Amino acid sequence: MEIKFDNFKLRPWRQGDEFSLADNANNENVWNCVRDYFPHPYTLEDARTWIALNENKEPITHFAIDVNGLAVGSIGVHLKDDVYKCSAEFGYWLGEDYWNKKIMSNAVKEMVEYAFSTFDIVRLYASVFESNHASIRVLEQAGFLQEAILRFAVIKNGELMDEYIYSIVRL
Question: Could you give the CA distance from residue 124 to residue 169 in angstroms, rounded to a whole number?
Fold first, then answer.
């Protein structure tokens, strides 16, 4: 399955993406916007592990963001279970060379539609560090609403900050 746009496409992760994935993910400015479980430095072995975890997965939960045949970012959902089984956590990142090109704005809108039509969920939510203004704009443009500010909830690079929770629902 591929979802095509003018300047990029969303597609499954595949063997051969390792070098472009590691090249784009191994960036401190990218890492500053994501949780600490996202490796830094990001190695070829980290890329191989991610691809192995996600290739051939049906239905797809995480897509590669492909620009000119290179995997330069990722977008996906983490499906929840138990009493949260109607929700999925939404996440994404993009290589810094591709910022401010409307790639993520378009990818998020399309991924929202894909998630609601593919999975038995009614709510998507995303957590954003208070300093990540670009991601906040992307979510708001896609119809997400701020539903909470968790005060001093995260620490990144030794800085204690608020976490913003954004969600979109479909009933």
Answer: 6
Q: Is the pTM of this model over 0.85?
A: yes
CA distances from 63 to 148, 149, 162 (A): 27, 28, 28
Whether residue 65 contacts residue 102, with contact meaning beta carbons closer than 8 Å, is answered with no
Q: Residue 12 in contact with residue 1, Cβ under 8 Å?
A: yes
pLDDT of residue 148: 98
How far, rounded to the nearest angstrom, does the alpha carbon of residue 64 sit from its chain's CA centroid? 10
pLDDT in tens, 92-150: 999 999 999 999 999 999 999 999 999 999 999 999 999 999 999 999 999 999 999 99
**Nearest to 25, CA basis, from 7, 37, 12:** 37
Token output for 22: 């590691």
Q: How far apart are CA 92 and CA 104, in angstroms?
A: 8
- The tens digit of pLDDT for each residue in 78-87 reads 999 999 999 9
Please give the single-letter amino acid code of residue 27. Answer: N
Helix 18-25 and helix 44-54, axial crossing angle in degrees, nearest 10: 120
Is the distance from CB of 71 to CB of 17 less than 8 angstroms? yes
Computed from CA positions of residues 70, 73, 74, 75, in that sequence, does the dihedral angle turn out positive or negative? negative
